[in-house]
Write a structure and sequence with these properties.
Layout lengths: L28 E14 L24 E14 L8 E10 L5 E12 L4 E9 L23 E11 L2 E11 L19 E17 L8 E18 L4 H7 L9 E16 L2 E11 L13 E2 L6 E2 L2 E12 L4 E14 L5 E2 L6 E14 L4 E14 L5 E13 L1
Antiparallel strand pairs: 1-2, 1-19, 2-3, 3-4, 4-5, 5-6, 6-7, 7-8, 8-9, 9-10, 10-11, 11-14, 12-13, 12-16, 14-15, 15-17, 17-18, 18-19
Length: 405
């Protein structure tokens, strides 16, 4: 997963230009990495898994404490043929993720061309957070809905790094498909133009702290980073919505298939301070559901006209970690997502409850062992505020152990 959840073999992407002299034989090299994770979750909602996005409203089910065993697993690989292609090195990777809810998905499937001497890197395929909102908090679950814009973008990007500055631009379609459904022919399923993405960052490797392990990658260095990213485009809505809208209001107008303008901007930072490392993100936008913002709520529909209205939202998270002796780490992270406009306009096309605010606070104590084993305990509290309903609240405990290889 950016190192990301679960991975598998990869692609062979190599070969010199046809007009080049045949290179001397060189051995192919394979770099493998991965992670397997096991979580024991104490879940007072008795849902079988500790929820990682939103919490059901109080009173909608009887709460009782129980433990569920969950597996997050990642097995990743990169297959590289170290033959320069016009000064570039080609690398391919496929990443397959199993989420805690036992859902499999391919999150990374693409290749890169990298030229460190020129400071240029090109990527084509499907990548996790390649350009926009690129940081991942160090919680035990790969979760979203509280200011953490966990998404994938299918498309291409070009990055250039000169000294301590990085500029990256890309184009593609953002999504977060967690399910594998049958392939069905769907006319007009996507807008004609992709989203445009961009990021500018200042990165100073001379000031480096430690980023604690998270759900998909172990502890690793984190240089001072200050960045600003954003995206703009249109998301297509209205496809396949008629049955759901008719169930809400039989007399409703047919949903229009239309492109809704969407945009977001995001600020990200990693600030090492001796044994402390502070990192976080903050975003604002409209139609940010395309990037798993707005608590994953899709544009609302006007029942009288069939037109759609994208929700405006903002949110973010802040994390503070402290590197203790003997490779122990203490950490606290808090995040929230707030839908600021659009909830009162029309109705949710899927009939879901309207969520105005979603919050998470977590604290953990963990240890990195010499043989790349990570173990820890995390306590977290979540609150979901519903429009016209009671807040959903939950306090849960996670025990985690993972192995990097």
């Amino acid at each position: 997963m950016r190192h990301h959840s679960l991975t598998v073999p990869a692609l062979v992407l190599a070969g010199a230009p046809a007009w080049a002299d045949p290179p001397p034989p060189q051995p192919e090299t394979t770099t493998l990495w991965g992670r397997a994770q096991l979580i024991v979750g104490i879940d007072p909602q008795n849902l079988g898994d500790v929820p990682d996005v939103t919490v059901v409203p109080d009173g909608s089910l009887e709460k009782e404490w129980n433990a569920s065993l969950q597996a997050n697993a990642a097995l990743g690989g990169k297959f590289v043929y170290p033959q320069p292609i016009g000064g570039f090195t080609a690398a391919g990777q496929v990443t397959t993720v199993m989420y805690v809810r036992r859902i499999f998905a391919v999150t990374n499937a693409g290749f890169t061309l990298d030229n460190p001497d020129a400071g240029v890197k090109i990527g084509v395929g499907r990548f996790i957070q390649p350009t926009v909102s690129t940081l991942t908090p160090s919680v035990f679950q790969f979760s979203a809905g509280w200011g953490n814009l966990v998404h994938e973008t299918t498309g291409a990007y070009v990055a250039t790094k000169q000294d301590r500055f990085l500029l990256q631009v890309g184009a593609g379609r953002p999504d977060a498909d967690l399910f594998v459904d049958p392939i069905i022919a769907t006319p007009r399923a996507n807008p004609r133009l992709p989203f445009l993405e961009a990021r500018v960052a200042y990165i100073d490797p001379s000031i480096t702290g430690e980023l604690p392990a998270n759900a998909v990658v172990g502890a690793r260095p984190g240089p001072l980073t200050l960045s600003l990213s954003g995206a703009v485009g249109k998301q297509r809505v209205g496809i396949g919505e008629k049955a759901a809208v008719t169930a809400i209001a039989p007399e409703a107008a047919d949903p229009r298939i239309e492109d809704v303008p969407s945009w977001l901007v995001s600020a990200e930072a990693i600030v090492p301070l001796a044994r402390f490392t502070v990192m976080g993100e903050w975003y604002m936008g409209r139609g940010a559901n395309a990037y798993v913002g707005a608590v994953r709520q899709r544009p609302h529909i006007d029942l009288s006209t069939g037109r759609h209205n994208a929700l405006a939202s903002r949110g973010g998270w802040l994390q503070v970690s402290y590197a203790l002796p003997e490779h122990w780490t203490a950490l606290a992270v808090g995040g929230l997502e707030h839908v600021t406009d659009g909830l009162e306009a029309g109705v949710p096309v899927d009939g879901a409850p309207r969520i105005s605010v979603n919050r998470l606070f977590a604290a953990s104590l963990s240890k990195n062992f010499a043989f790349r084993l990570h173990s820890g305990v995390q306590v977290q509290t979540q609150t979901t505020r519903y429009v016209g309903g009671k807040d959903g609240q939950m306090l849960s405990v996670l025990l985690e152990s993972s192995m990097d290889f």
